[in-house]
């Protein structure tokens, strides 16, 4: 008789998913993906369907990782919520399968997985690409992704100053009260990023919020928002002048408005840098364009499931 699927709620997922275990797994699988061996990692480009009546999209993100025998898919719905801050902009569910029989082993709330694996990959990019002396961190945007990025970046790195910026002072102050640690609050992105060594953009904007003329030469930018081909967070000047890194070339070519609309050339995948086949140019201004990958969800989901199972 096939095993019955279990449902793991958001609090269970959060309890069993730690950055200390997640980051090494992500580094390993990103390197495997960038080696391009199809028998190791199978991950099609995200399939996205519009939800016209509600200004949203449904994305499907399947992946299979052979050496760990992980079969997984994430279903993520994301919306433009500019007029209603009481509704979530993203909902996600992760399905973990038994790869031998095809049955579902676990249904998991996918938001904590999404937030943590995204922030962890941004942190991996920063470890590789940010200036050796990085004193000032600036986060543009104050949503859930801003929280997860703040948590991991202030844990892994030591900054003399942390800045956060939102279009409204109330939102920025609410974010500052939610997280622990001192920070400066801004409503002007230009003022917030001035002199910053590391800039993280986690906005829901479809138009540029960060401009090249504002960015300190040699800074590293982790661009997390703008996951549609007609959305962008970064202007043409920044995309032209910076060295561009991505999580997946194939995904960036069809999904990233920052890359498509600017015509910028991708220099490398982060996995290629981890493999040592492409260099980390710390002395240059760098941009890591993050779109998210099914393999990232897969390794996170397997970590959660294995730890949950061992606790039973």
Would you kindly provide a written description of the structure presented here, covering whatever features stand out?
- The strands form 2 sheets. An 8-stranded parallel β-sheet has the order 10-9-8-11-12-15-13-14. Strands 1, 2, 3, 4, 5, 6 and 7 form a 7-stranded mixed β-sheet that branches.
- The chain folds into 2 domains: 6-113 and 295-311, ornithine cyclodeaminase, domain 1, CATH 3.30.1780; 130-293, NAD(P)-binding Rossmann-like Domain (Rossmann fold, 3-Layer(aba) Sandwich).
- It has 312 residues and is α/β, with parallel strands linked by helices.
- The chain has helices spanning 10-16, 19-35, 111-129, 144-156, 169-178, 189-193, 236-241, 249-255, 257-262, 270-275, 294-311, and strands spanning 6-8, 41-42, 47-51, 56-65, 70-79, 90-97, 104-109, 136-140, 161-165, 184-186, 198-201, 220-223, 243-246, 266-269, 286-289.
- The longest helix has 19 residues, at 111-129.
- Helix 2 (19-35) crosses helix 3 (111-129), helix 2 packs across helix 11 and helix 3 (111-129) packs across helix 4 (144-156).
Brief summary:
The protein is α/β, with parallel strands linked by helices. It is built from eleven helices and 15 strands.
Strand content: 15-25%
Average per-residue pLDDT, rounded, comes to 95
What class, by secondary structure content?
alpha/beta
Q: Name the CATH class of the largest domain.
A: Alpha Beta
Which segments are poorly predicted (pLDDT under 50) over 5 or more consecutive residues? none
What do we call the CATH topology of the largest domain? Rossmann fold
Q: Give the end-to-end Cα distance, rounded to a whole number of Å.
A: 20 Å
Query: Domains counted in the coordinates: how many?
Result: 2
Helical content stands at 25-40%
Number of helices: 11
CATH architecture of the largest domain: 3-Layer(aba) Sandwich
Q: How would you write the strand order of the largest sheet?
A: 10-9-8-11-12-15-13-14
Q: Return Rg in Å.
A: 19 Å
Identify the overall geometry: globular
Q: In sequence order, what are the helices and strands, one letter per element?
A: EHHEEEEEEHEHEHEHEEHEHHEHEH
Instruction: Report on the biggest sheet.
Output: 8 strands, parallel
Query: Considering the protein shown, what is the CATH homologous superfamily of the largest domain?
Result: NAD(P)-binding Rossmann-like Domain
**Count of extended strands:** 15
Family: Belongs to the ornithine cyclodeaminase/mu-crystallin family.
GO biological process, one term: thyroid hormone metabolic process
GO cellular component, one term: cytoplasm
Subunit structure: Homodimer. Binds the thyroid hormone triiodothyronine (T3); T3 binding inhibits enzymatic activity.
